[in-house]
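Predicting holo structure, copper (II) ion bound.
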Amino acid sequence: MRLAYVLCGTALVATGFSSCEKVEAAKKDPEMMKVYGETQAELTAPPMVPRPVGKRAATKLVVDMEVVEKEMEMSDGVSYVYWTFGGTVPGSFIRTRVGDEIEFHLKNHPDSKLPHNIDLHAVTGPGGGAKSSFVAPGHEVVFNFKTINPGLYVYHCATAPVGMHIANGMYGLILVEPEGGLPPVDKEYYIMQGDFYTKGENGERGLQAFDMTKAINEDADYVVFNGKVGALTGENAITAKVGETVRLFVGNGGPNLVSSFHVIGEIFDKVHVEGGDMINKNVQTTLIPAGGAAMVEFRVDVPGELVLVDHSIFRAFNKGALGVLQVEGPDNEVVFAGKTSEGTYNPTGVAATEPAEAVGEAQVSDKSLAEKLERGKTVYTQSCLACHQATGTGIPNAFPPLAGSDYLNADPHRAIEVVKFGLTGEIEVNGEVYNSAMPKQNISDEDIASVLTYIYNNWGNNKTEVTTEMVKSKK
Ligand SMILES: [Cu+2]
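Done. C-alpha cells:
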C-alpha cells in the first residue's frame, strides 16, 4: 500500500501526469470503493454502541433488524405500547464505515399488528429505502445500499401515518465512519430524544394510548431520552472517570420537537454539527433537529454528576428529558474549587458586615430556632421551591413531597445527606416510588441546617431542629 503511494508519487513527478491521481481518486471515491469479505453487523441497545470500525476496510455488512411491537414502561406506573426497531427505543445502533455495502434484512415479528418499513437518512435513494423495505407482520425483506457519505444519521419508520409510527418509538441512529474511523475516545454512548403523546396527562397511571390530537398540536406529555423517564438516571446513569474523553452520539427522533441539548456542568470540546463533518469547538448547547443528530465530545475533568438535559428546561424537569453522566475520580481544585467563602451582603450599610469565613474552617455557632426558620424560608425559596414547590407538595412522578414526607421524618441524618450530596436512584416517599436525580445543593452547612429546620417545622412535619454541627459531621 505504502509502496504504491511512493511509486505513484514518483511517477507523478516524472511525468507530471495523472493516471495515478485517477487510481488514488477511485480509491477515495466511496462509490468506487471495493468491499472485502462479508461481516455480520453488531447491533446494540441504547445507551451502548458497537465497537468502532477503526482501520477495517469496507465490507459487505449484513444487518439483521427485527421490528417488535411491545408494551414497556414510560414512567413509574405508566406503560405504553411501543413500536420498536430491535425491541428498544431508540432502536439498535448500527455502525458502518464509508464504502460498506449494506445488506439490510428487515423482519416484522409475526405478533405485530401493522406493517412497517425503514427510512435511513444514510441512504442515497428513494425514500431512504422506505418503499423497498415495506414489510408485513411475519415477513422479511432484504434491500441493499452503499454508504457513500460519512456522518451520524437518523433512521425511522416511514409507514403511514408516519408521525404515529415515529411517535410510537420507531427511530434510531446509524453511524457511517470515515476512512480510518473516528478518533478514538475512552467512552462512547448512544442517546436519543423523543416526544410522546398520551391520552392521560403526564404521570397518569396505567397503560396509555397514543393521542393523535395532542401529537398534531405538538403538545407533548413526555419528552425523554432513550424512550422513558429515568432511562439514564439512578442506576441507569452512564459513567466515566476523571480524565477520560467521552463521545455522545445524540439523535432526535422527534416526531415534533427540536432539542437544545446541553450537559449541565460541562462544555463540549467538539461538536460534529448536525452529525456531519463540520466541527465546532467549545460549545455550551447544541441544537439537534427532529430527524437529526450530533456527535459531542468532551473530556471530564472533575468528579460529580453531569446532568444531560434538553435546555427547553420544563421538558427536562417536568417531562423527563433528563439524564446523568456520573463521573468518578479525584477532585481537581484548579478546574473547580467549589464554594470558597460566604459572608453577609448588606448594600444599605446599616448593619456591620461580617467577614467572610472559609467553609470547612468556620467555627460552629448555631442560630436560634427563630433565626433558622427565617433564614430557612429564604433558602427554601431560592434553592428548593422550583422542584419541591412552594408548600412542599412536590410534583407527582417528578419531585417527591417534603410536606408530611415519611422519608424525611424517618431520618434527619439521611435528609442532610440528600441535600449535601444529592440523591439518585429509587426511593419511596409516602408509598410513591421516585427514580430521579436531586442535584447536590451548593449551599453552606449553616444554610442546610436552616432550610431543613424550616421544612421540619412546617407542613405537618415532625419539628426536628437540625444543627450546623449535624450537617458538618456529614463528610
Ligand atoms: Cu412503523
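The first helix runs from residue 2 to 15.
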